[in-house]
Amino acid sequence: MIKKGMARHNRGEDGPEIPHLGLLKMLQVLSFLLVFVAGIILGLLASTHINSLFNSQRDLFFTSNIAVTTTSVLSDGRSSGSNCSTTNSEPCNCKSCDDESKVDCLSMKTFLHPHNLTHGMSDRELFWRASLVPKKEEYPFVRVPKVAFMFLTRGPLPLLPLWERFFKGHGKYFSIYVHTDPGYVLNVSSGSPFYGRQIPSKHVEWGSVLLLDAERRLLANALLEFSNERFILLSESCIPVYNFKTVYNYLVHSGHGFVEAYDDPSRYGRGRYNRRMLPYIWVRQWRKGSQWFEMQRALAAYVVSDTKYHKLFKKYCTPACYPDEHFLPTFINMFHGSMNSNRTVTWVDWSLGGPHPATYSAVNITEGLIQSIRMNQTLCSYNSGVTPICHLFARKFDASALEPLLNLTSRVMEF
């Protein structure tokens, strides 16, 4: 009896006596298909989310609302000059243009050499991007070091023809950046090296931290171009006193920056120090210097990367403390003194006294004046030695000085 019962039980497991076996197998197949389809749907949703996140980060990093000008070269060497504009609603590749002139905003060329200076980045975003420093020493392209000429002006550049003559024929060795009052449009011809070189700007007030912000904004925009190696700050009243080749070689071959920094014990130096900057800045570290600086790329990256000391100066260096005269000299003296020569390459005449230097007009322009600036009978430190060339630029010169200066360029300044 036991054996028969066991036999019937075995047949119940292995035999065809279970009537719903086919239905169970069908349910198993349907369950598997349901799980499979659900997995595909979830995968597509996740992929869409990741792609959206990447695009948003790309827009932040490569900026939005940027007008990109693309140029396709025709068979005869002429430029087609087609224009593409990207907005938040369009992909970065310019779909409105033909395939040959399409701009890939994620390409190395666009990343390393941004040609259009218009962007929608805030200062915070701009300084973050400009502070990115490659760890790899080699560049993925043939790098020709450039000098970035950064002009800080309220409006027009009255000495523009002099600078255009200075730059002529040296296009591959320099970049130009112009910071003006917001809304001002620099009126130059399309053939000028200043054409299209205005950066997004903000209001500036003399003697306030806003002036320092403008300087750092110029530095940050210039740092986006990876070929820029040296950075010189100039005003609309500055002139070059040597030709481009001399200026370029002097700066590119220097192992130091040219940021004037000295300890002034008077009320115009240490007298402007605010004890509320303690314990971060001590009076013995306080320095003063000319606003008109020149520096190398590594030092410029340190300057735009700083947040802590900029906030201190914004809070505690208020009139009669002037951030443009103290921030860079103090900051560099504290942390990067070995990278600096502690002198400026921009000559200025303070012999008249007062809060502003002397201004030179047409009646003051002589060959002797320019020669005295070029060779002022002193020696200045340069790398491990000294040089009789101390100043490459000079200020202040008004608009009336343009014509007599142009008459001296070939004979005295040699350009």
Automatic annotation (TrEMBL):
Transmembrane segments: 21-46
Any one Gene Ontology molecular-function term assigned to this protein's record: glycosyltransferase activity
InterPro entries: BC10-like, Glyco_trans_14
Localization per record: Membrane
Highest taxon of the lineage: Eukaryota
Keyword Membrane: yes
Membrane topology, as annotated: Single-pass type II membrane protein
GO cellular component, one term: membrane
Protein keywords: Glycoprotein, Glycosyltransferase, Membrane, Transferase, Transmembrane, Transmembrane helix
Protein name: Core-2/I-branching beta-1,6-N-acetylglucosaminyltransferase family protein
